Hints:
Blueprint: E1 3-6, E2 9-16, E3 22-26, H1 37-45, E4 49-53, H2 71-85, E5 91-96, H3 98-109, E6 114-120, H4 126-153, H5 156-164, H6 167-174, H7 177-192, H8 204-208, E7 214-217, H9 226-235, E8 239-241, H10 257-260, H11 262-280
Helix pairs in contact: 1-11, 2-3, 4-6, 4-7
Amino acid sequence: MPIAKVRGANIVYEVLGKDGPWVALSPGGRRGGDEVKSLARRVADGGYRVVIFDRRNCGASDLVLEGEESEYEIWADDLFALLSQLKALPAWIGGASSGCRMSVLFALRHPQAVRGLLLTRVTGGKFACDRLAENYYGQFIAAAQKGGMEAVAAMEHFRDRIAANPANRDKILRMDVKRFIDSFSRWREPFAAGADLPMIGATEQDLRSIRVPTLVVPGHDKTHDSKTGLRVGKIIPNAETHVIMPADKDVDLAIEDWDEKEGELAALMLDFMRRAEKRAA
């Protein structure tokens, strides 16, 4: 896949589709862009140009294990820079879970660059905050404190990042342990403090300020409970909420269920974007 230099990091990306309005889709967790490639292809086949990419610290893109702002704010600014390079703005911005957080932050930080939002599996509440703070940051802080950067490089997430991009190994090992711990501790703070927000990373005032057409598709597990998505759908002024999962499950994650819903989700996105563009015209 092509590689773009984005704000100092090499970012792997791909464009599906040859014409039509631009869309950017991002997966949840720290997964690479390939995780949404099948969905992106369905959207592209519906008449859109769809950008998928590996966020920094994900997939085969560069590791940059520090930053003053939250990681999803950094991702949002990276995406804005990438889409600017591709002359793909304004665009529909969408994603699931962490990709959803990044999409909301994109709209808040770059409102002029957004046609609309496609938000899936919104994350919020104490369970999600505690779980993600540990999964994304806490376990790596503990490893660094105990075994230094060698121990960090040996953990599954970073082993995978090294396998995908061997140059990442040197970047990990060269990093000062204290700087790494300070950075990951700073990135953990929004999760630790986010339990009382409508969703992680955004206040009610933030969400009410979003004026673009917004599709909200709630999740159905303990990390992405449906009430969080429903609440966010009620707060954003121009949001339209669609529930496509029958009931919440008492499990941490139920990602595999979404594979069966991919066709329905793509059709929902296409219908929503077409209706919004028709109204705008």
